[in-house]
Amino acid sequence: MAIEVGKKAPAFTLEDANGERVSLSDYAGKDLILYFYPRDDTPGCTKEACGFRDLWKKIQARGAVVVGVSPDKPASHGNFAAKYKLPFPLLCDPNKEMMARYEAFGEKTMYGKKTQGVIRSTVWIGPDGRVKKHWKRVANAEAHPEAVFQALTGEADE
């Protein structure tokens, strides 16, 4: 199932850093910024997470919430969130099944070599559960949160 603007986002249920189960349906009626990243506490992933953290209040003011997803375990997510004071949930997808459904895991090229791995990407899911925007392959992790915020405010046309 491809992620397509206007189509229903695939349902999911994953554990957060506290072992609580979190589902797409928990965010019904809200704009959900669901971002996928390779690994906790690595340079690009930290810049991206801190960017969403720094825009958190502005994003909330727009009626949206941010949720990060990576293959890391709950303890890693807990340490990462505590270290950088991340105010949003980080979900664990160790088998990468949900990531695959969201086109956030698959073939990618690193240093000129094709590999299988996490594809840094973001899906904006509207209050009705439909995809509003899909950033398929995020090239600049540090600038990406601002681009998402600009899309939320209607000031971007990327």
Task: Describe, in plain words, how this protein is organized in 3D.
The chain is of the alpha+beta class. The chain is 28% helix and 28% strand. The chain has five helices and nine strands, in the order E-E-E-H-H-E-H-E-H-E-E-E-E-H. The chain has helices at residues 43-54, 56-61, 74-84, 97-101, 144-153; strands at 13-16, 21-23, 31-36, 64-70, 90-92, 105-110, 113-118, 121-125, 131-135. A seven-stranded mixed beta sheet has the order 2-1-5-4-3-8-9. It is globular.
Provide a concise account of the structure shown.
28% of the residues lie in helices and 28% in strands. The strands form two sheets. It has a seven-stranded mixed beta sheet. The protein has a two-stranded antiparallel sheet with strand order 6-7.
Rg, nearest Å: 14 Å
Read across the widest sheet, the strand sequence of neighbours is 2-1-5-4-3-8-9
Give the SSE string: EEEHHEHEHEEEEH
Uncertain residue segments: none
What topology emerges from the helices and strands here?
Blueprint: E1 13-16, E2 21-23, E3 31-36, H1 43-54, H2 56-61, E4 64-70, H3 74-84, E5 90-92, H4 97-101, E6 105-110, E7 113-118, E8 121-125, E9 131-135, H5 144-153
Parallel strand pairs: 3-4, 4-5
Antiparallel strand pairs: 1-2, 1-5, 3-8, 6-7, 8-9
Structural features:
158 residues, alpha+beta, 7-stranded mixed β-sheet, two-stranded antiparallel ribbon, 9 strands, 28% helix, globular
